[in-house]
Amino acid sequence: MRKNSIKNTRINGEVHRELSRIISREIKDPRIHPMTSVVDVEVTPDLKYCKAYISVLGDTKAQEDTMAGLKSASSFIRKELARSVNLRNTPELIFVMDQSIEYGVNMSKKISEVIGETVAADDENSGSEADIEYDGDDADA
Question: What CA–CA distance (Å, rounded) separates 131 from 88?
Fold first, then answer.
């Protein structure tokens, strides 16, 4: 099976869906932050390993605690994944921290700040232009 085959894409999607469900609903570990999401999943073509990209919306301590909780619960997660997804081999899970959602939120904040500053500057400039008087010479036509 090739890496970008239709079968591998379907397996990635199914594992992604079930892994998200297991992490959000099945695990009771208090170290795992409630705003934890599975961003992407890459299952190797031989179904031996699965790289799960995890995003945690929180501070650095919450991210570290969540990764420690996921690593300690990886055998439970793998068992639940084997129960819900029928695969020849249940892949070994490798959790990788993904910062893309946090990066996107920070960029959105910065863009909003720049737009807010631009609007405020435009409002100040438009107030000075409103002081120009109008003759009214064209009103006779």
Answer: 78
